[in-house]
Amino acid sequence: MTMGTFRLVKKDCINNRGTRWGESLIHCGLALCTLISIVTTFVIIAILAKESFGFFEEVSPVEFYFGTRWVPLLEPSSYGVLPLVWGTLSVTFGAALIAIPIGLASAIYLSEYASHRVRSIVKPLLELLAGIPTVVYGYFALTFITPLLKTVLPEIQVFNALSGAIVVGIMVLPMIATLSDNALRSVPDTLRQGAYALGATSYEVTTQVVVPAGLSGVMASFLLAISRAIGETMAVTLAVGATPNMSFTLLESIQTMTAYIVQISLGDTPAGGIAYQTLFAVAGFLFLITLLLNVLSQWFLNRYREVYD
Fold first, then answer.
1. What gap in Å lies between CA 168 and CA 290, rounded to an integer?
2. Quick one: average pLDDT of 181-210?
3. pLDDT at residue 262 above 90?
4. CA-based, 20 to 30 A from 161: which of 21, 83, 176, 188?
5. In CATH, what number does 78-304 get?
6. CA distances in angstroms from 289 to 105, 169, 265, 279, listed in the order given
7. What values do phi and psi take at 68, rounded to 5?
8. What is this structure's pTM?
9. Which residues sit opposite 70 in a β-bridge?
């Protein structure tokens, strides 16, 4: 595959006859950018695979994927990754419960009901949330959301999964709202007009015509947002803590996969040891999860996409 990419670059750079020199240079630059992205991806996969194989030479894959105790830095050591997976899924599921209904409702309002003036104001403000650094979200959860929750739930801990879920839900909300809005606005107006001509109400047009017609884009936005939530790092590191456990309550401290990667990356763990290699094993597992979600979203988009002339 790499050789084929090089042939494409060579073809664009050398055999591109009949075009001007400037256009050929642009083609070469674009092809080079594509090649860099492909090479970077394969280098990341190779590094993760190499270090992960070294880890699995010492630790059984069964223990790693199905173990329920994660204590890699202390004796006696245990390398069951399920507590980290549970913490990641707890935050992601909570964030999805918050972001999906609010994001979809925002997209429906912006697409179907908001005036042009309101849309020109509200949508940029909504998308502004995506530009806030994630570490700021983490401090926001720690200094505002958690104290606010403590007034209602006095038993909640300083670091807890609920604050992390809320702040991650706020983070992925613009992605869902923007992508879903684009999907709904791509539905032809002729479908809306036809439904109105048949006597449908505005609510019926929205729920029974527009949303089903744009469902592929809406579902793809959900999956991409969930993928973003799973890979979120700094916000959950500051908000949820560093206690790997399989707690069934969101009021206690947990640890996500990304938070553990940050913990190991601080430099206190000697390089080359089994504890250091856990970083790559967890990162590789996280990479597979996010890759699966992205592939699933792309498949869903292609499988159920409506094409209108």
1. 16
2. 90
3. no
4. 176
5. 1.10.3720.10
6. 28, 19, 21, 15
7. -110, 10
8. 0.83
9. 79
Q: Please name which of 234, 258, 232, 231 lies closest in space to residue 244, comparing C-alpha atoms.
A: 258
Give CA–CA dist 206/210, Å, rounded.
5
Bigger pLDDT: 57 or 11? 57
Q: Which residue shows structure tokens 């006597």? A: 199
Say if CB 82 and CB 246 are below 8 A apart. Answer: yes
Q: Residue 194 belongs to what H/E stretch?
A: helix 189-197
Q: Spell out the domain ranges in the chain.
A: 2-58, 78-304
Do 277 and 285 form a contact (C-beta atoms < 8 A)?
A: no
- pLDDT of 43 reads 93
Residue 71's SS3 state is strand
Contact 252/157 with Cβ under 8 angstroms? yes
The one-letter amino acid at 260: Y
Q: What are the tokens at 69?
A: 């105790």
- pLDDT more than 70, % of the chain: 91
One-letter amino acid for residue 197 of the chain: A
Which residue reads 């502004």 in tokens?
Answer: 128
Q: Contacts for 127-134 with beta carbons within 8 Å, 24 or more apart?
A: 127/174, 127/178, 128/174, 129/170, 129/171, 129/173, 129/174, 130/171, 130/174, 130/175, 133/234, 134/171, 134/232, 134/233, 134/234, 134/235
Q: How far is CA 285 from the centre of its chain?
A: 15
At 116, which amino acid appears? H
Q: Which of 17-26, 60-69, 290-299 has the lowest mean pLDDT?
A: 17-26
